Amino acid sequence: MTGPYATAITVVALFCAAWVLISAAANRPRGVALLAAxxxxxxxxxxxxxxxIVQMAGSDHNLARGEFVMYLLGCLAIPPAAFVWAWGDxxxxxxxxxxxxFLITPVMVLRVQQVWAGSVG
Length: 121
Hints:
This protein is an all-alpha fold. The protein is built from four helices and no strands.
């Protein structure tokens, strides 16, 4: 569950967060490009979730399986929820919600990796 794929998700999410924060600061309206960036991130997360569940099912690795699956599903839920919320709020605050979702995603990916590794500390 660690490696280049998780790193790619993190880089894409942080790049998108920077882009959205700059757009919000410049008071630019949201558009199709932002929606496309969110879709790219969501596709990466779907692959991550499917890969994680398949890897977990085929492994006798000792981990909290329920917690692992819930974190994977949480990763999938955060960006769409943020976009639904933000599209209802046309202010800069709505755009900031999208940026926050992009910033939360790498934290969730890191947490998935920690659960996969087993107990920490």
